[in-house]
Design a protein that fits this description.
Helix content of chain A: 40-55%
Number of domains of chain A: 2
Strand content of chain A: 5-15%
Strand order of the largest sheet of chain A: 2-1-3-4
Largest sheet of chain A: 4 strands, mixed
Largest interface: A-B, 43 and 43 residues
Number of helices of chain A: 9
Distance between the termini of chain A: 49 Å
Oligomer: homodimer
Order of helices and strands of chain A: EHEHEEHHHHHHH
Radius of gyration of chain A: 18 Å
Structural class of chain A: alpha+beta
CATH class of the largest domain in chain A: Mainly Alpha
Shape of chain A: globular
């Protein structure tokens, strides 16, 4: 079968990064179609969204092409890759639990995004600063700690030990939690430090994922896009409470 | 195996309703644990969230108990039920596409909720009215029409005809789109009417779902919780633009 082609807006890690981490850990070749110095990157991504004749059109990036398949929605892409590359258990219960974790990570990602865009993604941050300040305050004091405490509980209760969210091996949920926490640490260095002090198992998991051979090589490569002010996780000091 | 037990906050349709519709269409018995006149309803739901010793604790309701399984996240519950009750195709591609549709419905539901709670779910609407007005304006003018147009496109391109989102039979995604559009119609009668005028296939699907035998019986029953001002979809005339 053909290789994987990932479509995501160039220049920011965004939701595409959750897919990249799975592909990198799996060690499979993939083409990150819109990345790099090519000026046509955004056009390539947009073309896939508006192309006529696709029976399963994606609503938004990221989307993955694999042969004739076009799969949108980050969590659905990971469900697909998890089955193929041993990044989720094979049992129905384990597979579903991994996916449930991923969907909760997705919720946390969306809420993280909305701290700087509580009114409209279409508008600039500068057009919604007072609202962003209020939303970020709630996120830093309530939502982020709540999400991280839940992941801590999940790690504590894993019957196979607290090194992974599910079972005794790495899953795409572990990789995604690494990315979520990395993003929160970039965006909210103070608030995330306070929250992570109370969730040491989450903090340890993040360290362990970063140290995995393939992930470490990826993070040191040019393929890894640094967090920046165009992505989902942005550092505005005034929002870090 | 034991029957299904659904846990969701009593007195509002909320995200629990997406699960109820699937169970009703499947025609399987289930216990809607927290509903009805029982004062202990909220406590029953909360108890499941905070119970110690559950290896797969849900982050938030709804969650479904089925024998020893506890499944959280609406889309994950539907993935589980879809497989068991013929509410999704059996092929991997069809199953994944149905799920992708559901995840996009979930995104629309969250955005619909955030129109009246753009700052914090923890606070009252009255504490975030100016922000809600701005967010609802964007939702009514941009996001809702964009979501509905996408579903219209999906219906137009379904190789098996535009009566269903996937293939030639009803799936949980059809049921969920019915609930999403019903909620939008309750919350934003003017804006949704304008959007639905441009998405006639979506409007027709909603009518067709409401007319299905089991769904019609359910909608006429006391089990159906009407939309109200405590749920995800709320009607504040000042937000309907």
């Amino acid at each position: 079968m053909a290789g994987y082609e990932l479509f995501y807006w160039p220049g920011l890690p965004g939701r595409g990064e959750f897919v990249r981490l799975a592909l990198e850990e799996a060690g499979v070749p993939y083409r990150d179609v819109a990345q790099g110095p090519k000026a046509e990157g955004p056009g390539l991504v947009a073309a896939g969204l508006s192309a006529a004749g696709i029976a399963t059109p994606p609503f938004a990036p990221p989307y993955l092409k694999h042969g004739k398949r076009i799969i949108g929605q980050t969590a659905a892409i990971l469900l697909y890759l998890g089955d193929r590359h041993g990044l989720a258990p094979k049992t129905e219960a384990g597979r579903l639990w991994t996916h449930q974790l991923q969907l909760t990570i997705a919720d946390a990602v969306s809420e993280g995004h909305d701290t700087h865009h509580p009114i409209a993604s279409r508008l600039y941050y500068e057009d919604q600063k007072p609202e962003a300040k209020r939303r970020a305050e709630d996120f830093c004091h309530h939502r982020m700690p709540k999400f991280l405490r839940w992941f801590e509980t999940v790690l504590e209760r894993n019957p196979k030990g607290s090194l992974h969210l599910v079972g005794a091996r790495v899953t795409y949920a572990d990789l995604s939690l690494f990315q979520l926490v990395s993003g929160l640490t970039y965006a909210f260095p103070k608030a995330s430090r306070a929250a992570l002090r109370k969730t040491p198992k989450v903090a340890a998991l993040v360290q362990a994922i970063a140290a995995r051979q393939r992930i470490a090589a990826y993070l040191a490569s040019e393929r890894r896009i640094p967090f920046n002010q165009y992505g989902i996780f942005r550092h505005y000091p005034e929002l870090d409470l």
